[in-house]
């Protein structure tokens, strides 16, 4: 119940009730999108959004740039380690 | 699956573990006093066990599994209240599946259903409202359960019921709040923690500001974390870096989901529908001030507590249960007297054995006991 699952909004079903259909790994399920709609991001703009769904409610839009940034930090960490390892190996020779 | 697989990448996990090992070694941590980080949220406990995160960490770092499983902290008396409502004539009692097997003093909701009560498992409060629409002659009661993560969904469903003028729908509100609970843990005299892995999905709703006191007054660092293995490892690495650099801050590892300001529409719905209770009773932790919410007067007609006669009797936890000590990190699950003997996932005595997010059920299911037995 507390574990969210990512899904993608594919169509708006009911403007007044803020209901939309989400695709979650091939399963389609109606979700409430009231929590991801505001003046800057109207209902129509939600189609195509990746969202995190909790108990039938889209509770957050997943920020693609932030996701990429987190992964970039980890990739760089790996590259720095490999660089250091290579340096150590060459120093040991 | 997108946004899951990338955060389960083994190569990146290895980089992180190497950094964690290096930092841990550089901190010269005494053998008898490892660093203890508490994951507050049951979702993290679940991930930590599912992916074996604890077993990957170097000696010197211990994870303490906190109170963040709303099913696990449900006191027995509240389950009795649920059963009492469910057994009333004409009632359909709708609940998340997680709550079905939590033991009450007489019976669980599962047993009440077997005895003839109309108890239905639902995935969403919206499904409960659907039941009310489809059964106008019946009273549908939804068991509102969870921290701030699920609190807005119940509030929005009540607001929908109001808009539609649905009269036969109500909520038995047992929603709880995380911040007073963290504070109660920090005030506990037998507690010794070095930092927190912060609850990602609660924070998605409330934002990062409510945790400021943890760093400011209690001088403990926190990193708000996502739920994939890389998220958790990265958060542990960030905590170690804070300790190494002498910083004490609230940091956000889960920025792809958690905004510092939280979720405004969700918070609006929450403050419109609920007010704080003076006290709320937790299994294992006792009564904690301002740790639960109830419906405001304006929504009284959707409040099952006002609509139905509820016993509201306080039932003490079973004597043998040490759920409270486990919740506070004083003992490990397998050190409890009844772990794996009188208390198993099939016949749980304590709530920590009931839900898959409970520390004891996770220990039992993923065989963590073996490693600890071997170590002792």
Question: How would you describe the overall organization of this protein?
Answer:
- The complex is a heterodimer of chains A (93) and B (376).
- Chain A has 93 residues and is an alpha+beta fold.
- Chain A folds into 2 domains: 5-62, SH3 type barrels (Roll), CATH 2.30.30.140; 64-93.
- Chain A is built from 1 helix and 5 strands; from the N terminus they run E-E-E-E-E-H.
- Chain A has one helix spanning 64-92; strands at 5-14, 19-24, 27-32, 50-54, 57-61.
- A 5-stranded antiparallel beta sheet of chain A has the order 3-2-1-4-5, with no helix packed on it.
- In chain A, strand 2 and strand 3 form a beta hairpin.
- Chain A is elongated and about 70 Å long.
- Chain A starts with a strand and ends with a helix.
- The model of chain A has no long low-confidence stretch (mean pLDDT 91).
- By secondary structure, chain B is α/β, with parallel strands linked by helices.
- Chain B has 3 domains: 5-69 and 179-252, HypD, alpha/beta domain 1 (Rossmann fold); 76-176 and 292-307, HypD, alpha/beta domain 2 (Rossmann fold, 3-Layer(aba) Sandwich); 323-366, no CATH class.
- In chain B, 38% of the residues lie in helices and 16% in strands.
- In chain B, the strands form 4 sheets. In chain B, strands 2-1-7-8-9 form a 5-stranded parallel beta sheet.
- The two termini of chain B are 39 Å apart.
Structure summarized in a few sentences:
The complex is a heterodimer of chains A (93) and B (376). Chain A has 93 residues and is an alpha+beta fold.
Summarize the helices and strands and which ones pair or pack.
The complex is a heterodimer of chains A (93) and B (376).
Chain A: E1 5-14, E2 19-24, E3 27-32, E4 50-54, E5 57-61, H1 64-92
Chain B: H1 10-26, E1 35-41, H2 42-50, H3 53-56, E2 61-68, H4 76-86, E3 91-95, H5 109-114, E4 119-121, H6 125-134, E5 139-146, H7 151-164, E6 169-175, H8 179-187, E7 195-198, H9 200-206, H10 212-216, E8 222-224, H11 229-245, E9 250-252, H12 264-273, E10 274-276, E11 279-282, E12 286-289, E13 293-295, H13 304-307, H14 323-327, H15 359-366, H16 368-375
Parallel strand pairs in B: 1-2, 1-7, 3-4, 3-5, 5-6, 7-8, 8-9
Antiparallel strand pairs in B: 10-13, 11-12
Helix pairs in contact in B: 1-11, 2-15, 7-12
């Amino acid at each position: 119940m507390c574990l969210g699952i990512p899904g993608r909004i594919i169509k708006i079903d009911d403007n007044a009730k803020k209901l939309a259909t989400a695709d979650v790994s091939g399963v389609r399920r109606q979700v409430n999108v009231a929590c991801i709609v505001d003046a800057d991001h109207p209902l129509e703009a939600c189609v195509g959004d990746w969202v995190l769904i909790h108990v039938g409610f889209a509770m957050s839009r997943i920020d693609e740039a932030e996701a990429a940034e987190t992964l970039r930090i980890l990739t760089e960490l790996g590259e720095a380690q490999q660089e250091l390892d290579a340096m150590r190996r060459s120093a040991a020779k | 699956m997108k946004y899951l697989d990338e955060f389960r990448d083994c190569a990146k996990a290895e980089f992180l573990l190497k950094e964690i090992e290096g930092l841990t070694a550089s901190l010269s941590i005494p053998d008898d006093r490892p660093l203890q980080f508490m994951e507050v949220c049951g979702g993290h406990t679940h991930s930590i066990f599912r992916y074996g995160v604890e077993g990957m960490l170097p000696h010197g770092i211990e994870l303490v599994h906190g109170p963040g499983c709303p099913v696990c902290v449900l006191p027995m008396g509240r389950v009795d209240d649920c059963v009492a409502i469910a057994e009333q004539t004409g009632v359909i009692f709708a609940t998340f599946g997680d709550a079905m097997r939590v033991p009450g003093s007489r019976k669980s909701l599962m047993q009440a259903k077997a005895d003839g009560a109309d108890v239905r498992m639902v995935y969403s409060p919206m499904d409960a409202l659907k039941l009310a629409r489809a059964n106008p002659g019946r009273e549908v009661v939804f068991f509102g359960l969870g921290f701030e993560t699920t609190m807005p969904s119940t509030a929005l469903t009540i607001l929908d019921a109001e808009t539609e003028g649905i009269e036969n729908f109500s909520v038995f509100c047992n929603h709880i709040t995380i911040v007073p609970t963290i504070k109660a843990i920090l005030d506990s005299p037998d507690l010794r923690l070095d930092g927190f892995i912060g609850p990602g999905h609660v924070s998605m709703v409330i934002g990062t500001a409510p945790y400021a006191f943890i760093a400011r007054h209690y001088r403990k660092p926190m990193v708000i974390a996502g739920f994939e293995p890389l998220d958790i490892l990265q958060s542990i690495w960030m905590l170690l870096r804070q300790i190494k650099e002498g910083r004490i801050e609230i940091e956000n590892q889960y920025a792809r989901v958690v905004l510092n300001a939280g979720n405004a529409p969700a918070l609006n719905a929450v403050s419109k529908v609920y007010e704080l209770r003076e006290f709320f009773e937790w299994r294992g932790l006792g009564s904690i001030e301002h740790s639960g919410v109830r419906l405001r007067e304006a929504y009284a007609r959707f409040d099952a507590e006002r609509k139905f006669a509820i016993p509201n009797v306080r039932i003490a936890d079973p004597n043998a249960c040490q759920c409270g000590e486990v919740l506070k990190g004083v003992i490990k699950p397998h050190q409890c007297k009844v772990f794996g003997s009188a208390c198993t996932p099939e016949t749980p005595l304590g709530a920590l054995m009931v839900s898959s997010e409970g520390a004891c059920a996770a220990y039992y299911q993923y065989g963590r006991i073996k490693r600890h037995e071997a170590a002792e």
